[in-house]
């Protein structure tokens, strides 16, 4: 659920050049005409995949569907729906995707082994979309300290005081 009206969520998604803002592996989407676009994705091991895609259904404020064009390196199709959330609490965003990886179904299992689960990635992309729509940026803790002091930090006078205070409070 995104705390924005369905029409606003739809409009942001429909502007295809916005997609790389919340899908990190998507390097670019270039709109070639009203219904077609060129996609560039970073694949496994630094490879680059490119294909052309066509919008097959476009219901303003409600739904967008697409598929890759014939001969594409990645056979891909999907749709995204924008539905009013109960009680006027924003928008429910539902995505359905189907794709055939370039190296076949075996590469899906291999991707999961190396930590790239397509289902988990789709959920993460939706979470990032939600943050971008609601906050105007994607919230992350990446690059921030974990809050725990290193063993060296605990040896300093400040670290010992902090540790003693924690022990007293428990």
Features:
single chain, 170 residues, alpha+beta, 6-stranded antiparallel β-sheet, 5 helices, 31% helix, globular
Task: Give a nutshell description of this structure.
This protein is an alpha+beta fold and 170 residues long.
Explain what you see.
The protein is 31% helix and 30% strand. The chain is of the alpha+beta class. It has a six-stranded antiparallel beta sheet, with helices on one face.
Number of helices: 5
Into which percentage range does the β-strand content fall?
25-35%
Rounded to an integer, what's the Rg over CA atoms? 21 Å
Q: Taking strands numbered 1, 2, ... along the chain, how are they ordered across the largest sheet?
A: 1-2-3-4-5-6
Topology:
Blueprint: H1 6-14, E1 26-31, E2 36-42, E3 48-59, E4 63-68, E5 75-84, E6 91-100, H2 106-113, H3 118-135, H4 151-155, H5 157-169
